[in-house]
Amino acid sequence: MIDAAFWKGRRVFVTGHTGFKGAWLTLLLERLGSQVTGFALAAPSEPSLFEGAGAARGINSIDGDIRDLAALTTAMVSVRPEVVLHLAAQSLVRPSYEDPVTTYSTNVLGSVHVLEAVRQAPGVRAVVMVTSDKCYDNREWTWGYREVDQLGGKDPYSNSKACAELVTAGYRSSFFPADRLHEHGVGIASARAGNVIGGGDWSNMRIVPDLMRGFLSGQPVVVRSPSAVRPWQHVLDPLTGYLMLAERLWRRDSAFASPWNFGPVDADARPVSWLADRLVQLWGDDAKWVVEEAKDGKETGMLRLDSSHARNCLGWKPRWNVDAALEHTAGWYRAYGRNSTVAAVREATESDIDSYLTRT
């Protein structure tokens, strides 16, 4: 589990802090007492968890684009972070077909810029580069992909995440080799997570926010690719893994300067249709969904992660199974429907964080 004492007062630089995962991470780090600097574009949706929960309160929030190397380097050098957590990305498959150039420039060159800024910033000791479970060459296996399996990606988003993994590996071997960690002092790892769910995700073309918008408005929801199987997990599970990984890197343990999977147990890899049905049950009130198969932008049908490396070597494991994750997610949106003020949204989010951190 997270070492709360480690994070108290720690200087942390988070890219993409205005996104869904980034906002949860920012609020989690605030709860742990870290000194957080965020660097990102404006929140990518309206509403957004970042704005809705007042996540900028108590942190140093910088409006910037990771494609701007000079601005990113200036920001990172000025705050002298000890830990860098890179989450900024174009994070959706379907828009990557519509605008592949932005997807590649953000996800690939943006990763180059983060690592180049790290080279210039004094005091950095731990860097976690977050990519995606979709970075693997997906062959529709029924078993989970391991960190040693081949990278690939058959769409611009997935392929750009595989490229980001190669960038990370290239920078690590060229400038921050793991076998010389005690000389240069900077540990760099990459993290690959499954499909995260949780309150406050308002992205378009994601199953949970699509369902929640429909349920809140009383409208049936169109679900594409209902038979696709995904490794569902609450957003706090992989975020905890990232922080645990950063702790080990900061302590200059070279064994952790490598790629890591953070996915749910095999039983929690479920079809989209199962997820939709379960949320209908949890919501009630005549919630419903209808099928519309995707007509463009093919996504993979089967995707699982093997996270045994993280369980065995890092001591990480999911704290909430998919049922608990869905219960907390539905509860969050229910609370939002009753009261969407900043205070109420922040309270609902912090309540989930506290419940997660205190679960034994």
What features would you describe in this structure?
By secondary structure, the chain is of the alpha/beta class. The chain has helices at residues 4-7, 20-32, 49-52, 69-79, 93-98, 100-120, 156-175, 181-184, 207-217, 236-250, 272-283, 308-314, 322-338, 342-358, and strands at 11-15, 35-40, 60-63, 83-86, 126-130, 187-193, 195-197, 221-223, 229-234, 259-262, 269-271, 289-291. Strands 3-2-1-4-5-6-10 form a seven-stranded parallel beta sheet, with helices on both faces. The protein has a three-stranded mixed beta sheet with strand order 7-9-11. Helix 6 packs parallel to helix 7, helix 11 (272-283) crosses helix 13 and helix 13 (322-338) runs antiparallel to helix 14 (342-358). The chain is globular. The mean pLDDT is 94.
Cα radius of gyration in angstroms = 19 Å
What percentage of amino acids are in beta strands? 5-15%
What overall geometry do the principal axes of the alpha carbons give? globular
Distance between the termini: 10 Å
Structural class: alpha/beta
Strand order of the largest sheet: 3-2-1-4-5-6-10
Poorly predicted parts = none
| Contiguous helical run count | 14
The overall pLDDT, averaged over residues, is: 94
| Element pattern in H and E | HEHEHEHEHHEHHEEHEEHEEHEHHH
Helix content: 40-55%
